[in-house]
Design a protein that fits this description.
8 strands, Immunoglobulin-like, 427 residues, single chain, alpha+beta, 11 helices, 11% strand, elongated, 4-stranded antiparallel beta sheet
Amino acid sequence: MTVTLIDATGARSELSGSTHGATGDTEVVTPLPTLQPGPVSVRWRLVGPDGHPITGRVNFTITAPTATTAATPATTAPTVAVAATTPPTTIPATVGTSPFDQSDDSYSTPTFVRWIVRYASYLAIMAIVGILLTAAYVWTGTGAHSILLRVLSRSLFATAALGFLQLLVVASDISGRAPWSSFGSIDAATTTDAGMAFAIRIALVVAMWLVLFQADIAHREVYWTAVTLPGLGLLATWAFAGHSRSMRWPAVGVATDVAHHAAAAAWIAGLAIVGWIVIPKTPPEVLVPVVRRFSRVAAISVAILVATGVVQSVRLVGSPMNLLDANHGRYLIAKVVVLAAMLGIAQTNRRRVDRRLEDSDGAGHRTGALRKAIVTEFAIGLIIVGITAAMVVSPPSSSRAETGAPLDTEIRAILHNVVTGSERPTQ
């Protein structure tokens, strides 16, 4: 958390020494320096457990002593200010130029940029996990195909680079400066759940790259254990850098989030591999069993996606009445609609698989329409991933309902218990 004070002269200073108050982590106590009479503005910034930046501004006025208290020093000395995340009260400001009139010039990474970075990170991690799952359960040739090896290597690099960029965004949210000027705040960023998740993600990518491209592990069980553990860790960093860890029922949220994204990776990456490589570039004796196995994996993935999606919706949205109260709920509605369309196409694809691949000898001549349908299904899957990235960027309804804060509004603060040198509260 950073706290900036602007006094009556317009001088800006960073305050230090903030601690939790008597009520625990819902209250922060920040010592104030000696202040001259006049208007004062205090601005604070912090990063929530789910990685969302939260800012607030507190305005108050130090009044000059009255004639009856002439013996009191003219300079008042507030000793403590307590800021709590509750809706603000109206505090009158003095007329004329004052800190109240100054706009907040701290930097905030645009929402669209956050979405782009998170979307690209989603795609990279889903490519990694999806290729590995396809190699394990659908097509053993996945791990030896040159194109897929290049995709895997580049996805690992992209995941590490994007993880570092997201870590810089968290540092920027804390410091109030642009990400490229926030390298000095990386240590502070790693003290947050989201920042630590991004740092761990980078370490896991390095470990996975060493196992996949540098180590020579002959024993199959050892190899898959060495690959699976970092893969699960990558999926878990999504949960710890988002709403699954920060909202209610965190243990359930993390487990369902990992299962949800693993199923999505198996389905969407499998579609890409089957549609672009297996169908056009493998003989029928390889194609038919691979497509049938993928059909079964896709059916299981769909069941997991639906079940975990329901659980996450209950956690994050709560009542159906909250769906339209926040952008998160609106994105969820859009995701369900697009997913329903994707499921319809998937069901049509499975019927085509069962019908057209019954004759394995002629399967290679009747897969053109199947491939087009799979490519269409894959494209819709990319849209769903984009909506999911937008959902993570936007706070869910339950995050506001639990605090009592208004929906889709910036969380503000109320200042209270300001003690002056004369031991008389100013408000």
